[in-house]
Amino acid sequence: MQIKPILAALRRHKAGTLLIAMQIALTLAIVCNALFIIQERLAHLSEPTGIDEANIFVVKNEWVGAPDTIKVDAMMREDLQVLRQVPGVQDVTPSNSYPLRGNGWDDAVKLNPEQLQDTSGATIYFADEHFIDTLGLKLTAGRNFRAEEIGRMDMRYKLAPPVVIITKALADKLFPDGNAVGKTIYLIGGPGTVVGVVDLLQAQSVDRWASGFAYRSVIIPERLAMSLGSFYIVRTKPGQRDAAMRAAYTALFAHNPRRVINDDDGMLSFTEVRSRAYERDRGMAILMGVISVVLLAITAAGIVGLTSFWVGQRRKQIGVRRALGATRDDILRYFMTENLLISFGGVLLGAFLAIAINLWLVTRFEMHRLSMVYLLIGVVILLLLGQGAVLAPAMRASRVPPVEATRSV
Amino acid sequence: MSGMFVHNLRLGAASLRRNVLLTALMIMSIGFGVAASMVTFAVFRAVSGDPIPQKSSRLFVPLIDNRGPQYNRHGEPPSALNYVDAMALMRAHKAARQTMLFPVGLSVMPDDPHRMPFKAVGYATYSDFFAMFDVPFLYGNGWGGEQDDARAPVIVISRALNQKLFGGSNSVGRQITLDDRQYRIVGVTDTWDPKPRFFDIFNGNLYADPSQIYIPFTYAMTQHIDTYGSNNCGSDGKRGDSWDSWLQGECVWISPWVELDDAAQVQAYRQFLDGYAREQRDAGRFNWAPNNRLRDVREWLDFQHAVPPESRISLSLALGFLVICLVNTIGLLLAKFMRRAPEIGVRRALGASRADIYRQFLAEAAMVGLAGGALGLVLTAMGMLGLGLVFEPQIARLAQLDASLVLLTLLVAIVATVLAAFYPTWRAAQVQPAWQLKSN
What we know:
The complex is a heterodimer of chains A (409) and B (440). With 409 residues, chain A is an alpha+beta fold. Chain A is built from eleven helices and 14 strands. In chain A, strands 3, 4, 5, 7, 8, 9 and 10 form a seven-stranded mixed beta sheet that branches. In chain A, helix 2 (14-45) runs antiparallel to helix 8 (279-313) and helix 2 crosses helix 10. The two termini of chain A are 29 Å apart. Chain B is built from 16 helices and ten strands. In chain B, strands 1, 2, 3, 4, 5, 6, 7, 8, 9 and 10 form a ten-stranded mixed beta sheet that branches. At the A-B interface, helix 2, strand 13, helix 8 and helix 10 of A face helix 2, helix 8 and helix 11 of B.
């Protein structure tokens, strides 16, 4: 295929050529950034919590009145007993938070009380000896809390538990040489000895600000007994979650009606927790997907429109070429190659534009750098799209009969 | 002139009908582009609007650094005050109006035993709150300064709570029981829910459900009512174990607001804050130079990144989208107009001026724009329904397709299309009559 005559012809259609190339460039720039955002969000929302999500639900229990911490602790223990009696319930633990909740108690961890800068941030989970079993965590080193180690704590107490369990991610950060068990860590309130390490437990927030300590958590052997209330995390036997949720609600109110369990977020299955936590990420991915598809469609339509116009304009020339011996394939190939040349120009410009947009997003919205893979995927998509779009008009061109050369208008 | 305009429109319509595919492509392109940008703009407008435009430049958040450079994040003081500093500002009374506030969640036990108890969420604050934030009242009023001083168990409830508890009747003077404490209702607010809720950014309640109750801060203190929101204790751990040591500690949990009417008052207040910080340093509480902030509502929203980044990203993407659709339209219009070069040549040869050609083709483009705008409206309306998929329901429901958005959609579509038509029209007007006549 001779490229020279094509270039010569394009020079006569500067405006149209430029417009198609620009459109391809802009589309590439937006589509590969959109693809990248989609992939980032999807990866984010498939991060594991490390817990037995399918069989867990969470009760947000608030007390009526302002009972003191001793009273609250007693009522919480009664509630835990009540929940254990509910058919289908396997285990229960009280806590101040749970993975994907969004906010809660975050603390700073140091290795030495004199240290000015924290060694790491960490999510604080208050727990009793049932915490590990209820969430379905895997203890990889050391031991679980003993029943007699579980204390009672008010919101305003200093956080200084004698023993703690930490996640493997935190252990790796604090003690890179391994063997965290037996070591001492310092929370704001004071020191605690690590007695166990659990494998995987996500932090309560998956927002960007908390990404620095995403899987670093400290489990504290205390019931956080505040008059404001707390969470009961319940694990059920497989397949019995929904029935157990309804039964638990009734049982709690039957035992003590002086409580508030909100209609909208008082009882949440973990499936619901997950979908709420990632609402924005999912939404963003959908939005980007829709935008990409519509954009590609519009660009394709634009190519079809302009190429059809060119074909219409050049019917006579095509007729002449056919009369001079060019085959239908030659004509078809001519238009395909023409489109390919324009597309190449477009994607080249688009690649620069894509990187520029990404850099802007990086500085403005703390996004990550665009991986070249997405750029490549975008380039391939657009080249294929161009070839696909030009196919119909090119076929029409190839069907122009040689006799067209003799027509004057 | 108007006769000519109508003639141009007729010519345009005829030409558009002649090439249905191209016309449809253009209309769709504009429709999609405009709809995408309008939907995202509606969200952006909803979340980035000024929540209290009449006063946003006169309401300020004073912040005092009680942590020092060692524990600060990027040198900024914490985003709220501790009790000691909050009380110092209230006592000093240096602003025209001032209030402190923190969220409270109190349980309502309905008299009817079949109804479940529920939480009424709102704020503990001072009497100036209502005047500062222009809270509208349905019945009664806010409480007065003397009730602040008396630590009186009074309460203002929202219209919605009044509806739920009293069926909407005037409940001023009646008692309600919250968490076993009796409150006397002094006012019922009309519907009032500024979005974002600028006065409680500290607790992240920007798009939360409307608040239902307001009680005196001073009364909440006598009853040891805890914050229903966050507290931030920084890294020095002066937390305190009892109610009193908690109040004396350095954890921040109170959002402060002052009303200052002009630049001189703002300047004076800054000086007052610095003076206060110096006093605290001299007293040995701070060992750092005064590091205070005084931001008005807009600066505060900006600083706290109150506009969700999703809406900014999607707005800029949607604008890019619109640009692509316009480039597309330019190309299609070019194809369309140039195809009619012979016709233009004939018209020019018969005496039509360049200006005539301009008018004719721009009128045609305006019609495409109008049609694109109409399609864009339909798509925008559909997009609004789908917003819940992308944004949280609290944010999605703020965006509305109102008259101004409808108008804007049509306007953007027409203006954009006419702008896009300039180049193709210019090209069309360049057609040489003689050359066209000769070649054919």
